[in-house]
Structures are given as structure tokens and as C-alpha cells.
Specification:
With 385 residues, this protein is of the alpha/beta class. It is built from ten helices and 16 strands. The strands form two sheets. The chain has an eight-stranded antiparallel beta barrel. A hairpin with a 3-residue loop joins strand 10 and strand 11. Helix 1 packs across helix 6 and helix 9 runs antiparallel to helix 10. The chain binds flavin mononucleotide.
Length: 385
């Protein structure tokens, strides 16, 4: 008998280690929570004792409200306003600015929310209404705390507000009667969830300015997928200008699919403006943009230097590799200067597409047949510098 118990104990230990191991292999995790009376905060503490994650608390803009007053009437009022017009931003109670506005660096997001009147707490609904679109394609998990009510409507709210999430698995319901057992419930839940692995290097964009290359993490949306498709063909060089004291921007020379939203762009953010312009930020600005990504790990001062803040006609090369600088004449960006570059150049001349700067191979300020001749000269002389 003792032997059986011993074997079972070893098997259970192996199972739990296996569950946690899949989380250990997971990509970056962000836990987003709202808590009025502290239960969700305690759940987040138990959760982050078990997995490595960044944590962000959502707070209402209006402080000191007593949601439990008049038999929880205020909470009901907030939810009624949302239910009456769920697509209207004005239906949602205001929240404080969030500390992490760019979710592009996260592979997994866990939402921890209280249940109010059998629905998702109104404050968390505001957050997801504003930021849920950034969770498209990411693995998203849901933990709900209630006194005793079931959570099916909260799950439905989450699916409405984050329609394009990849749900990690079933939501975890922690009710008052098992709140004290939350560590074990969370441990079992983690083991059952499908976490996304870390982002591959395909999610990285490399930005080169004046011979200096910095990596950026791409957002996952239709625009970045199309951009990656194009960059797989060839790197792209654009000429950007400083503007407004907060960005360098200019035309890409082609359009990308938009999913515009009001974005409070931060230093390091890369966005698409009006479908065919790229903006790289060394300051902040709020406007309707499609997120493309974020330059990794640079301070605001470093960004100002890297992006040549204040200057004009800045040549910016976008590529999927951090490899050597583009060779002169390598118009299609495949690393070689050959007849394929002549063909690409002629394609530009015959189409309405704006040719990238690097197509001006003879550097006379124009892209024309003279550049094709120059490429042939380079090939014949084997002088690709
Ligand atoms: C406005 C409001 C409405 C609530 N409605 C319900 C309810 O319908 N059913 C229920 O079981 N609990 C309800 N609760 C209780 C909370 O879901 C529960 O206490 C939860 O643990 C709170 O999480 P927090 O401490 O992180 O805010 C309500 C709480 C508030 C503030």
C-alpha cells in the first residue's frame, strides 16, 4: 500500500511539473486585472507566484465610488449603459491611462476580473473595449472572481470585447467559497491552458538608419503580416522627415491594410498613418493609427539620436534581418546585385509605385533608366560598393 501511495505521489509531482514546464516555455505573459475589494488582486498575487508575468492594474478614472451603495445600484447603472450601446465608446466608464499601452511584445495575456451582476465588471470592459483589438491572434486566458454567480456571461463579454483572441482554454471561476483554495485552482488551471510560445524572429523588424540597426517587435495584424510578406521579398528603404517634435514619418510607397484606432503613441512606437505612411516616434502623440510595432529597449534620448529627431530626408531601411547594410544596386534587397535588380527597377519605372530611395542607384536624385545602366555597370565591374 505504501508503495502505491509513493508511486502516485511521484506521478502527481511529475504531472504538476509538466504543467508548469509548458508555462515556463511560454512566451511573454501580461496579467491585466481590475479589483474593487481586493479579491482579484489576491488572485493575481497567487498567479504571479506561479508564473513569470508582467502585471498591470486597471483603475477607474473616478475615484472613491461606492459600487456597493444602494444594493450595488451604481455597478448596475454602469453595466446598463454599456448594454444599451456596446459599440459606443461613451457607454464605458473612463479609466486611468494604462501603464502598458503597447501589447505587441506579449504572446499571452491573462485577464483577471470581478463579476458584477453576472457580467464582466464595467471597468474591465472599458479596458478591453479600448485595447482588445491589440490582443488579436494572441493567446488570452480569463479568470473571474464572483461571490457565487456563474461566469458564462462574463465569458461572453470577453468574447465580444476581444473577438480575435486565441482563447487559452476554459476560463477559471473562483467564487467566494473557494477563494482560499485559489493557489491550487490556479495551478491546475495553468496546467490546462494553451500558452503561446515565444515570438519567433519573424516577429522582429530591423530598422537601419545611417548604418545603425535597431530591432523592433512587430504587432500582429493584417498590416504587419502584409509588411512581412513584402520584406521577405526585399528590404525597403523610405525617406522620412521629422515632424511635430515627436516623430519621423513619410510615405511607404504602398498601402497596407488598416485597423485604425485612437492610439496614444509612445516613444519607440511604429505606426501606419492613413494606410500608406509610416511614423516612428521619439515623443508621444494621440491620433488614429494602425499599430505596426515598437522599437526595442531604447530610452527616449537614445531614440532621438537613432531617429535623427529634428532632421529631414532621413533614409530608413526596414528589413527582417539585422544583416549587413544593403549593397548599392541591390534594388530588390536580396543581398546580390544582378540582373534581377535591373528587372525590379524597370518594374518600378513601368508601374505607378513610388520607387524606394535605393532605386536611385546613380544618386542623381531621380529614378530612371540611368539607374538600370548603373546597375549593369556595377555587375560588369563587380563593384557592389
Ligand atoms: C457592483 C457589484 C456587483 C456584483 N454582483 C455580483 C453578482 O451578481 N453575483 C455574485 O456572485 N457576485 C457579485 N459581486 C461580488 C463580486 O463579484 C466578488 O466580490 C468579487 O470577488 C469581487 O472582486 P474584487 O474584490 O477583486 O473586486 C458584485 C460586486 C460588485 C461590486
Amino acid at each position: 500500500m505504501k508503495r502505491i501511495i509513493f508511486i502516485m505521489a511521484i506521478m502527481m509531482a511529475c504531472c504538476s511539473v509538466q504543467g508548469l514546464a509548458s508555462v515556463t516555455d511560454a512566451g511573454k505573459v501580461l496579467v491585466v486585472y481590475y479589483s474593487y475589494t481586493g479579491n482579484c488582486r489576491q488572485i493575481v498575487e497567487s498567479l504571479t507566484a506561479q508564473i513569470e508575468a508582467d502585471v498591470m492594474e486597471i483603475e477607474p478614472a473616478e475615484k472613491g465610488l461606492q459600487y456597493e451603495a444602494n444594493n450595488y445600484a451604481l455597478g448596475m447603472q454602469l453595466l446598463n449603459a454599456i448594454n444599451a450601446a456596446p459599440n459606443d465608446p461613451d457607454s464605458y466608464p473612463a479609466i486611468d491611462p494604462v501603464t502598458i499601452s503597447d501589447l505587441s511584445g506579449y504572446d499571452n495575456i491573462i485577464i483577471v476580473t470581478p463579476l458584477w451582476w453576472s457580467q464582466m465588471a464595467a471597468i474591465m470592459q472599458t479596458y478591453l473595449f479600448n485595447y482588445g483589438s491589440q490582443m488579436a491572434g494572441k493567446h488570452v486566458g480569463l479568470i473571474v472572481s464572483s461571490h457565487s454567480s456563474g461566469i458564462s456571461q462574463v465569458v461572453a463579454d470577453a468574447k465580444r470585447l476581444v473577438p480575435d483572441a486565441v482563447w487559452m482554454g476554459d476560463a477559471l471561476w473562483i467564487k467566494a467559497s473557494n477563494h482560499s483554495n485559489r493557489a491550487t485552482l490556479i495551478q491546475n488551471w495553468i496546467a490546462s491552458q494553451d500558452f503561446a510560445p515565444g515570438q519567433s524572429t519573424m516577429d522582429k523588424l530591423f530598422v537601419t538608419i545611417d548604418g545603425v540597426t535597431q530591432s523592433a517587435t512587430l504587432a500582429d495584424n493584417a498590416a504587419t503580416r502584409e509588411l512581412v510578406n513584402r520584406l521577405q521579398e526585399a528590404s525597403i528603404t523610405v525617406t522620412l522627415n521629422s515632424s511635430g517634435g515627436f516623430e519621423i514619418w513619410g510615405p511607404l510607397g504602398f498601402s497596407l491594410p488598416t485597423s485604425n484606432e485612437q492610439v496614444y503613441a509612445q516613444p519607440g512606437d511604429i505606426v501606419l498613418y492613413n494606410g500608406s505612411n509610416i511614423c516612428l516616434f521619439y515623443g508621444s502623440n494621440s491620433w488614429s493609427y494602425t499599430r505596426l510595432g515598437h522599437i526595442d529597449n531604447l530610452t527616449q534620448d537614445e531614440l532621438r539620436t537613432f531617429l535623427k529627431a529634428g532632421e529631414s530626408n532621413i533614409n530608413v531601411t526596414l528589413s527582417l534581418t539585422s544583416g549587413p547594410a544593403v549593397k548599392r544596386g541591390d534594388v530588390n534587397g536580396d543581398g546580390e546585385v544582378n540582373i534581377g535588380d535591373v528587372t525590379t527597377l524597370i518594374d518600378y519605372l513601368l508601374s505607378d509605385e513610388t520607387a524606394p530611395d535605393m532605386a536611385d542607384v546613380n544618386e542623381d536624385g531621380e529614378v530612371n533608366i540611368g539607374d538600370a545602366t548603373k546597375i549593369i555597370d556595377i555587375i560588369l565591374s563587380d563593384d557592389s560598393n
